[in-house]
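Re: that chain you flagged

S.,

Sorry for the slow reply, it's been a week of failed gels. I finally had a moment to sit down with the sequence you sent. For the record, here it is as I used it:
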Amino acid sequence: MSYAERSLGQELVDEALRIVVETSEQYQALMPTGAQHPPLPFFGSLEQARVITFGLNPSAGEFSAGRGWPVSMAAAALAERMENYFVAEHPSPHPWFRPWSTVLSMLGTSYSSDAAHVDLSPRATKAASQFRSEPLRSLFVSMLVTDAKIWIEALRRAPSCSLVIAAGSATNDSSGYINEFIRDRLPQTGVRLLGPWRRQRGAGQTASHRIGLPGGREIPLFFCSTGPTMNGGATLVSACRANLDVLKQFLNA
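Prediction finished late last night. Pasting the C-alpha cells below so you have them in one place:
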C-alpha cells in the first residue's frame, strides 16, 4: 500500500512508532517496570469525528490482562484496532472513557459514531502523580513536548472535527493544566491557544478557547480543569452540562 493510500490512523501510528522508538531510552524511567506497550495515538475514527475529547495519556491499565493485547503488533493491525476501539465486540472500552461518553451523549454524539479521543502523549506511563518531583517532572514534560507533533497532526487532519473538549492537568508546575501547557510550552510547534483564561480556585473551572493549528486551521476548544478520573467524572460531566449551550453552539457552528 502506498503512503497516499494509507488512512490517517495508519499514518499517525507510523509517526508515533517512529518517535517512540527514537526516544524510548530517553523516557524509560517514566514507563511501568518491565512493560513495552505500543503507543496509542488515538481512539476511535478520526476520519468521522465531529468531536474529539482530549486528555493526558493512555492508562497503563489499558494493557491489563484480559484486554487482548499481544506482545507485539504490526503498525497496520494497531491502527485498525484503534480505529475500531469503540465498536469492537471485545474488549470493551476502558472505564476511563465512561464520563466522556456521558458528555458526548449530552451533545447527541458518541464514540461509536462521530467522536474520537486523542492525548498529549500516546505513551502509557506510570501514573503522572509519581512525577511531582525533579528530575522526573522535567522528563515527563519533555516527553509531552516531544510527542506533541502526533496529536497536532491528528487534530490538523481530522476532516470533520468542529469541537475539541479537553480536561485535566498536564504537569504539576505553574503551567499545569492542559490548556496552560498548550499555551506556554509549545510555541515552537506553531500551535496557538486563543481566548482568555484566568486560573481560579476550585474544581471544574472552564474556558472557551480556539486552538490554532499549523497551516491556519482553528478549532473551538472547550476546557475543564477537572479530568474524568476525579469523583468518577462527576465534576467534568457537571461542568459540561452547565455549559451545554456553548458546547452545542461550537459543535453546530
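What I noticed first: The first helix runs from residue 8 to 23.

Talk soon,
D.
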